[in-house]
Amino acid sequence: MAAKKNNPSNKTKDINYYKKKFWRVFAYSLLGVLAFFLFASWGLFGSMPSFEDLENPDSNLATEIISSDGVVLGKYFKTNRSQLKYSDLPKNLVEALVATEDARFYEHSGIDGRGTLRAVFSLGTNGGASTLTQQLAKQLFHGEGSKFLPFRIVQKIKEWIIAIRLERQYTKNEILAMYCNVYDFGNYSVGVSSAAQTYFSKDPKDLTVDESAILVGMFKNSGLYNPVRNPEGVKNRRNVVLSQMAKAKMISEAEKERLQALPITLKFKLESHREGIATYFREYLRDYMKKWVAENKKPDGSDYDIYKDGLKIYTTIDSRMQTYAEEAVAAHMQNLQQQFYIDQKNNKNAPFVNITQAETDRIMMQAMKNSVRWAQMKEMDKSEDDIIASFKVKTKMRVFTWKGERDTVMTPLDSIRYYKHFLQSGLMSMEPQTGAIKAWVGGINYKYFQYDHVGQGARQVGSTFKPFVYATAIEELNMSPCDSILDGPFMIHKGRHHVTEDWEPRNSNHTYRGMVTLKQALAGSINTVSAKLIDRTSPEAVVELTKKLGVKTEIPVQPSIALGAVDITVEDMVAAYSTFANQGVYVKPQFLSRIENKSGEVIYEPIPESHDVLNKDIAFAVIKLLEGVTESGSGVRLRTQGGGSGDNRWTGYPYMFTNPIAGKTGTTQNQSDGWFMGMVPNLVTGVWVGCEDRSARFKSLTYGQGATAALPVWGYYMKKCYADKDLQISKSEFERPANLSIKVDCYQRPAVVKDTTQTEQNTDEFEL
């Protein structure tokens, strides 16, 4: 059979046929890809971010609490994420990030075509193709996604679309900043700002090149390259980043080698609600913010969320003064606690003094019912008998000590008694002219003792109440600090001023001094004089003035309040005393300056509250009375350097202050509470010291009186404040009103050398 010859026309026909087929397949494929992209952009393969989402991505930002001197005191967060602007990022970190993660970042428009083709042809063996913009898209809008290949392809296409949109919406610098803000670095730190604080205890701008390289290395896989768990792997990864920087000519070869030789050095500290400075204040602020969000809505009517809306709360707290206050409280309370243990050494019912077993049992039972253990077992439907029995079983626990936390074994009941031994303290410091609170120390350790002794705990104030009585007398009776009054036996009979039986106050030393000036009487904290003054003015007048001074506690209308039988918070006492320093004008304590949203717009600014209470002359007369306390009374140790009873517990002594100081010590019945209120022209500070339970106390006045228990905290704190010249704490005289109508400059006999080795016996004794 003859062979079939090739026909040229058939050959041409075959070529044309395959050309048409190729172009048809190409067209269909192109249309398919375009349709695929179009459908993906429409959200048919899963939701896509809207224009509004791109404009305001949900970045779940922590709210920052910022001091008046620009320090972040703490944060409220569920995810610890803080927002930085591009200008806040250190240059070395930006360079390291671009060199390592996306070398052509400034050249592409969201998708790196060259990198994508390289990844396709090498099947991913020669590096991935995700740009920083694509990685940001993934972080912001869908996370890691599926590992199933078809779904993974869909996800990658969605990343491309979102990346292109992000590039249109934001500048390159904004994209870099956003990426640095959303990445999870582990250990509850999201974003470069939180990571810098967690791993290096630094602000981002202070990061060194090698520290920036460590963080950039973590962008690859923060779980694997965690510097706490894998320092060797982190060092290797850091060195890769440094090599990339050298390759991109961002650092020299010599610099690269020097940095690669450095060890991994961390200053690791988890950011926690219970650690850092101003912990009690931050918790007080959190409660305030719960009420604030209920009363202040977003423009769209929805509620603010302090845990994710990235608010910036600017406070009046000064981080330096707050630190000094916490250091002063810690130093003195640790010192005084040693004496308390000595004092309780032979007390079989320690730390409780002179109470019955029934009273002790009631205190312990109440403490058990207030514990976390009780609440947890109650939720498990355990009976009360079972719960009480569990408190008597020894268990492992970690306890607070002044030398650090300690692991031990004891029963929960014993741990309650152990913690009852600890002396507590509250301190608040405020500018009298503005009401700005500069320091707030609510206790000795927030992790173990959450009760706030500044804003939460009202305690009996002792002699620190007496200036309110004297101010009423000066106003109502036209008296002056130089007027004389008899210190002698005195009684208010049954029926007068609502007393139900005869009331005869006695001085703490059971002696009388005869004729004394009001200034001498307050300096010596003479009880009979205070009682006589309230008898002349009436308890009602004193209560009325005290309320005007901002004291919110319910005050009994009884003459005994003249000796301090009143419970008042440290916050209210500081505000009240500040009125005297502010020429008779009460200014409500203020802890907020403003609140901004995450865009930096001011959404709240408080309006200061103030009102006139006393005229300038009366306020200045009270100041001169209170200066007498530090010139010749229980506060004189602020100016001396001699010894004295309990001098080894006067933390920071000698203080040797020479500037004018107005102040008042206070000690309540049985030494349950020690107070000191101290004032200079531009700062008023109140300090309280005592145990959680009033029946846990010092047995003697030597250490239980306010001059030993509380005054040293003020003295040590002020020494630190004065040493910091930037704070500009005043050493000047209090401003004297022009044409002063009240005599305040009293005749003084020549000074007599005082025997400071004797215990000061000017503390109050109550006859309630």
From TrEMBL:
UniProt KW keywords: Carboxypeptidase, Cell membrane, Cell shape, Cell wall biogenesis/degradation, Glycosyltransferase, Hydrolase, Membrane, Multifunctional enzyme, Peptidoglycan synthesis, Protease, Transferase, Transmembrane, Transmembrane helix
Highest rank taxon of the organism: Bacteria
Record SUPFAM superfamilies: beta-lactamase/transpeptidase-like, Lysozyme-like
Pathway(s) served: Cell wall biogenesis; peptidoglycan biosynthesis
Subcellular location: Cell membrane
GO molecular function: penicillin binding; peptidoglycan glycosyltransferase activity; serine-type D-Ala-D-Ala carboxypeptidase activity
GO cellular component, one term: plasma membrane
Biological process (GO), any one: regulation of cell shape
TM region positions: 21-45
Gene3D superfamilies in UniProt: Biosynthetic peptidoglycan transglycosylase-like (1.10.3810.10), DD-peptidase/beta-lactamase superfamily (3.40.710.10)
Cytoplasm listed as a keyword: no
Main localization, broad class: membrane
Domain Glycosyl transferase family residue range list: 72-245
Catalysed reactions, as listed in the record: Preferential cleavage: (Ac)2-L-Lys-D-Ala-|-D-Ala. Also transpeptidation of peptidyl-alanyl moieties that are N-acyl substituents of D-alanine; [GlcNAc-(1->4)-Mur2Ac(oyl-L-Ala-gamma-D-Glu-L-Lys-D-Ala-D-Ala)](n)-di-trans,octa-cis-undecaprenyl diphosphate + beta-D-GlcNAc-(1->4)-Mur2Ac(oyl-L-Ala-gamma-D-Glu-L-Lys-D-Ala-D-Ala)-di-trans,octa-cis-undecaprenyl diphosphate = [GlcNAc-(1->4)-Mur2Ac(oyl-L-Ala-gamma-D-Glu-L-Lys-D-Ala-D-Ala)](n+1)-di-trans,octa-cis-undecaprenyl diphosphate + di-trans,octa-cis-undecaprenyl diphosphate + H(+)
Family classification: In the N-terminal section; belongs to the glycosyltransferase 51 family. In the C-terminal section; belongs to the transpeptidase family.
Protein name: Penicillin-binding protein 1A
Organism per entry: Flavobacterium nitrogenifigens
